[in-house]
Amino acid sequence: MNINTKIKHSPERNPVNETTKMAHETTLLAPRFYTTDFDELDKVSVESVRFDWDKLIGELKSDPNKTHFKKTKDWEEIDFDALEPTLRKELIDFLVSSLTAEFSGCVLYKEMKRRGKNPDICELFGLMSRDEARHAGFINDALREIGMDVNLGFLTRSKKYTFFKPKFIFYATYLSEKIGYARYITIFRHLEKNPDSRFHPIFKWFEKWCNDEFRHGEAFALLMKTDPKLTSGRNVWWIRFFLVARDHARPAFHDALGVDIEWYDKQVLQITSEISKQVFPIEIDLDSPRWERGLKRLRAAFESLDNAKRQGGLIGNLKKAYFSVIAGSAFFLLYIIPVKKNIVPKDSCLQPTY
Ligand SMILES: [Fe+2]
Ligand SMILES: [Fe+2]
Q: Which ligand is nearest to the CA of 177?
């Protein structure tokens, strides 16, 4: 599948507008693009999980969300200019960073399909890149409505790619798919109860949308189950690393959503932690007071670090060095909080229930 034909964009009209620049930027808090060792990925054999694998592929092929990402009468036009300026900016930030995250999945999965030779792997990643292309395209439609669509072709060609070995892609992407699910469903459920806070129609699409992310997470859980070594021995230290380093982004417009950001963060963490027991032999002790304290410190350091990077120059560089040390030590303190052990169930396929 060619993403450029699946996603409508108009590369020549406005090649690098403001939102494209935002999506192009590589910062600690901005979603990244990834690449991997495709030959190593080809060596994965799914025979040990064949039954669950075929079931999941069948579900992906049945394509339950085929017609979901289209604007219907539920998509009421919003008067964008009437939004309060701070909210308007935060909404654009949110749409652009969500779009970048969705598109990052699309690009990586599409490459995995294109460069692979293993038919199981190619089939899975073909189906998942189809979903992510739709998600990214839908958000870009929302941006296009206000004349701010991101040039996805330009982004594919020019954004920096980070290399991760397949096992690190599995840990990181598994978590980011499940976190994506937890975020979308938490916002959707909150707005179901508080429809007056729904200031953009896109949130109405989150319920079915998050089921796609849930399925993607299930696929990575199965990939990790194909080889018990991936979730035991020294790799548990890596899993611990990814559990702590997971994407901690939060919606800047939580006031407008009427959502308590501390509650939201906790909710997303708890849902993700509960789900990840399906495959990870450890879980973070979220009840430890050290966890919350450390997380606050880490977030503050990341923000200062990004600001310093943007500032540039000598002062910016000095600040960058200083906040890197602060962030590193905050991360280390989080990493050494004792984790809880977890016995991974033999049959661990899950259904979205939140
Ligand atoms: Fe997605
Ligand atoms: Fe996904």
A: 2
Buried residues in 339-349 as b, exposed as e (16+ CB within 10 A)? beeeebeeeee
| Closest ligand by atom to 206 CA | 1
pTM of the model: 0.91
How much distance in Å is there from the Cα of 84 to the middle of ligand 2? 31
Tens-of-pLDDT digits for all 354 residues of the chain? 344 434 444 444 556 888 888 888 766 566 889 999 999 999 999 999 999 999 999 999 999 999 999 999 999 888 888 888 988 998 998 999 999 999 999 999 999 999 999 999 999 999 999 999 999 999 999 999 998 999 999 889 888 899 999 999 999 999 999 999 999 999 999 999 999 999 999 999 999 999 999 999 999 999 999 999 999 999 999 999 999 998 888 888 888 899 999 899 999 999 999 999 999 999 999 999 999 999 999 999 998 998 998 888 999 999 999 999 999 999 999 999 999 999 998 887 888 878
> Could you say which ligand is closest to the alpha carbon of residue 184?
1
Which ligand gives the minimal distance to the CA of 132? 1
**Chain centre distance of CA 127:** 17
The rounded Å distance from CA 216 to ligand 2 centre is 5
Q: What distance in angstroms lies between residue 329's CA and the mean position of ligand 2's atoms? A: 31
Q: Which two tokens stand for residue 247?
A: 């994407």
Q: How far apart are the CA of 112 and the centre of ligand 2, in A?
A: 14
Neighbours of 106 (CB within 10 A): 26
Spatial separation of the C-alpha atoms in residues 135 and 123, rounded to whole Å: 19
